[in-house]
Amino acid sequence: MTDTTPTRAGFVALIGEPNAGKSTLLNQMVGAKVSIVTHKVQTTRARIRGIAIHGAAQIVFVDTPGIFRPRRRLDRSMVAAAWGGASDADIILLLVEAHRGMTEGVKAIIASLKGLDSRTPVGLIINKIDRVRAETLLALSAELNEAYPFISTFMISAEKGYGCDGLRDWLAATLPESPWLYPEDQIADLPMRMIAAEITREKLTLRLHEEIPYQLTVETEAWEERKDGSAKVDQIVYVSRPGHKGIVLGKGGETIKAVGQAARAEMEEFMGRRVHLFLQVKVRENWLDEAERYNEMGLDFRDGDA
């Protein structure tokens, strides 16, 4: 980059159905793990921003919750956060899974896109292209572009990185001219306390089954910087039912111990220093209706009003 090269910067919102690969793409583009990635749907609750530098451009990704038909207050707040992230962005990217195609959910998202500011560029990303044949991809691309006037279409595998270089080039060239919005060495604008909570929640989600992952939340209660450079992190896992506490703890505490070990290892890798992680499990039967819990997740409690 030369002194005469104009800098560009802006926000890119990733929207799509749950499990479309938004978090995987964010991590691929940023080059570090800044968003929770699991096989469960609806795992991204807060609008997590990951920051990528490409040439003279600073690309700030907003990883929104998956857009789905909301049933609970938490669901409604998550969907509202997703559309809030999209409406505030300089560029919107719709991710569609190649093997699922034009689902009813995708049709509903496209219908909602038509109600946003038409001046915001909207790009189409067909993800997981390694799962279908070339002719299927071409037919899906034609169908989607007939349904909405996307400014550009990209066919990628976020997990393997296929096609991501071209997408990165396009974003860097399309963002508006602007001074950079964040320091050059920053990769996310979330507080480390929240990133640590997301890491622990991911490990819980991977080990637990059925509805339990959606009935719990993790909060970083205390963070202590120690003189030796390490960090002491105290977290609480809130569950909504007494029966869930025993499941999260596991026989002889084996489940929560394994979760703690996995979360601590990832936190240490992410921060590049030693972490002392302490987990507690508590029952809060009404946490899904407490405004404070939503604030911790970066969601607006009022958006969940029916």
Automatic annotation (TrEMBL):
Q: Which residues form the KH type-2 domain?
A: 208-285
Q: What sequence ranges are listed for the domain Era-type G?
A: 8-177
The family note in this entry says: Belongs to the TRAFAC class TrmE-Era-EngA-EngB-Septin-like GTPase superfamily. Era GTPase family.
**What keywords is this UniProt entry annotated with?**
Cell membrane, Cytoplasm, GTP-binding, Membrane, Nucleotide-binding, Ribosome biogenesis, RNA-binding, rRNA-binding
NCBIfam families linked: era (TIGR00436), PRK00089.1 (NF000908), small_GTP (TIGR00231)
> How does the protein associate with the membrane?
Peripheral membrane protein
Q: Where is this region: G4?
A: 127-130
> Which parts of this chain are annotated as the region G2?
42-46
Location of region: G3: 63-66
Q: What GO terms in the biological process aspect are recorded for it?
A: ribosomal small subunit assembly
In alphabetical order, the GO MF annotations are: GTP binding; GTPase activity; ribosomal small subunit binding; small ribosomal subunit rRNA binding
**Name of the featured protein:** GTPase Era
What is the purpose of this protein?
An essential GTPase that binds both GDP and GTP, with rapid nucleotide exchange. Plays a role in 16S rRNA processing and 30S ribosomal subunit biogenesis and possibly also in cell cycle regulation and energy metabolism.
Q: Region labeled G1 — which residues?
A: 16-23
- HAMAP family recorded for this chain? GTPase_Era
- Cite the binding residues for GTP: 16-23, 63-67, 127-130
GO CC field: cytosol; plasma membrane
Cellular location(s): Cytoplasm; Cell membrane
Which residue stretches belong to region G5? 156-158
Q: How does it assemble?
A: Monomer.
In the UniProt record, the gene name given for this protein reads era
Q: Which PROSITE patterns match?
A: G_ERA, KH_TYPE_2
One family from Pfam that matches here is KH_2
